[in-house]
Structure formats: structure tokens, C-alpha cells
TrEMBL record:
Residues 1-23 form the signal peptide. It comes from Actinidia chinensis var. chinensis. InterPro entries: Cu-oxidase-like_N, Cu-oxidase_2nd, Cu-oxidase_fam, Cupredoxin. Belongs to the multicopper oxidase family. Pfam families: Cu-oxidase, Cu-oxidase_3. Keywords: Membrane, Signal, Transmembrane, Transmembrane helix. This is L-ascorbate oxidase. The keyword Isomerase does not apply. It comes from the Eukaryota.
Amino acid sequence: MMRRGDQLLLGFFFCLFLSLAFAEGGRIRHYKWEVKYEYKSPDCYKKLVIAINSRTPGPTIEAEQYDTVVVELKNGLLTENVAIHWHGIQQIGTPWFDGTEGVTQCPILPGDTFVYKFVVDRPGTYLYHAHYGMQREAGLYGLIRVALPPGVSEPFHMITIEASSLMTGTTKALMNKPLDYLPWTLSLLIHGKGSFNCFTPGIQSGLCNATKLECSPYVLTVVPGKTYRLRIASLTALSALSFQIEGHNMTVVEADGHYVEPFAVKNLFIYPGETYSVLITTDQVPSRNYWAVTNVVSRNSTTPNGLAIFNYFPNHPGRSPPTVPPVAPVWNDVDSRLAQSLAIRARQGYIHHPPQLVASLSRHRNLSPSVRVARKLCVYAVLYLAACLARLGSSVVIVTVLVVRNMR
């Protein structure tokens, strides 16, 4: 006959088996990152940035709906803590991996490694960024692209390829200055590349070099006569932006991870932390390239434009467009920005309903008898292990949280 302790241990392992058996489907996407200081010139001005695996923006997370994302993050910074927030991910059942330092987790100390693990339950375009000090503005950010599972179609059928665009405003030494005003954005980046005004008074000689390849405009190569989906995200700290591609209209189809009823824009207004997907058709004169431009709006700014080249294949990608970049919208044109906000409507038939998992977990009486028994065995097993550790004089405290889903 089995002893009581053996029964509890058996129940403990049975509970682990249940938690695996009832886990959500999908693949595991594993990433191993190290955060370090590096000197780079993303906007032609050499500065200390924070990079992930020597990249800023950091690596793009590619996943499909219901996949589990695992990020093993090592803090290689010598003097700063780190935390990463997964912007737009709902974290159903995993709030402790949200990455909000001081709220949902303790920071990752220098030299330490922390493993984030969460399920991406909605398709769409999302962000990740540092949630400690001004590290986001130092380059610690990236994009999350969540596709539909194989065999499931999007609510639009004109996609042939995807491109991502990241824009960020760069600031200097904000941590040591009181925030008595909104400081000027010094440069704008598109996909990690931009242009700083090297003639700015007070710039140290030799630190700014506008001829560096590292800060040459980002090139997005397209084929004439196709329709593309561009995923656009704003990681500015304080600036509202507009984004446009010379001579082309854009059709907005997604906003912040939600499908929307399509509507056309010439300028896309985008605010800090927002993401959009737009469709754009390459229907202009194919013998030349075009400008992609981002500008600061909502304030009368002197910040240089963020520029990229919309390259029509087979034109040379380094060939500058023959025109000057298009003029930015008037900085105080509130009506146009309001019109865009009012045009955003949820796409009918693709509205995300609130998750049912949380509700089912709160109704213990609706669990099947076998699951109720398993829950009790889990609790008893944890208590038993704690008692064993206490008996051995261990100073280690183990807290185990096991969620058993309702079997239908």
C-alpha cells in the first residue's frame, strides 16, 4: 500500500502532466538575448546606445497566433537594471511577465538572466521596449509580428509581402534634467536609421559624420504592380508623428493589433506606442524611387525629417528620388488628425471577444470531479514538499502556481 507521502508526490506529478496536457497549442518560439552598451551612429551622431545582440532596433519576434514566446534575457549592462515590456500582449494568465518594472516584476540586475514566457493569443502588430529609466530612448526596443495560424486567411487578400517600419525620436541627457518642458526631438529614425543635423551648435567635432553608411536612409525594395502590407510602429518618447510615402495612398487595415474597417489616408498620424498595418499599391512610375517620410506634428518643430527610400525594383536601391521629400502636414492641423481617429472602426466579424479562461477558473464548482481531485492533490503536494524542506532545515522557499483548465 502506498504511503501518504508517495501519494502526494504522485499527485504532484499528475498535476504537472495535466498542466502540460491542457496547455494551449502552437509552437514555442525561443529567443536568447543579451543587452549591452555599444557605440553606434544610427543618426550619424556617435553615441552610446543600448542594443540587443548588437542590434538596435532589436530582433523582430516572429510568431503565429497561440504560439508561446520564450525570451531568455541577460542584462549585460554594468550599471543599470533592465526590464522589457511586451506592448499590446494581453498576458492572459501570465501578468508577472508583462515587464513593468516595479509593478509586475523586479528589475533584472546587472549580470543576471531572466526568462520571459507568454502566449501571443491575437494576430497583429505589437512592440517590445525597455521599461526602466530612459533605456527605450537609448535604442532598447523592437517589433513583434504575430501571424494567423496556417490555413487561416486575413480579412484582406491583397498581401504579397510584409515590411516593418520602426520610428523613434532620440533625446539627449534627459535623465539629468528636470522635465520642466517637453524637450525637442533631435532626430527621427526609420527602421533604426536617420539623420542628425551635424551643424547644430555645440556638437563635438568628429562625433557627427553625415556620410556614414550606418546612417544612410533605410531602403524598402518593392516590385511595381504589387500590393504590400507595411507594419508601422511608433516608439517615440514624446513626439506625435506623421508618415507618408511620396505619391502613394495608404489603406489602414489594422490598428494596435485589431482589424479595422479599411480607410484611405495620405498621411498616417501615429502617436507614441501605437501600431498600424497599411496596404500600399506600387502603381506609380516604375523608373524612379520615392521618398518615405516621417515628420513631427503637434508642435512647431525644427527636427529634421526621417527619410527612407521606397525603391522600385530594378532601380538601384542607393539611387535617391529625383524630387525633394514631400511637405509635412501643417503641425497644428487638428482636423486631419481627428478625422483619422474617427475613421477607425472595428472590422465586423473580426472583433476580439474577452477571453473566457479567467471566468472559467473562478468557477470552481464547474470543474469536473477529476479536475477538482487533481487541484487538491496539487495543493497537498506543494504543502508536502514545503514541509519536507522545513524538516531538512532548508532556507529555500518554493512557491508553485499550477492552473488546471476546465475540461469540456
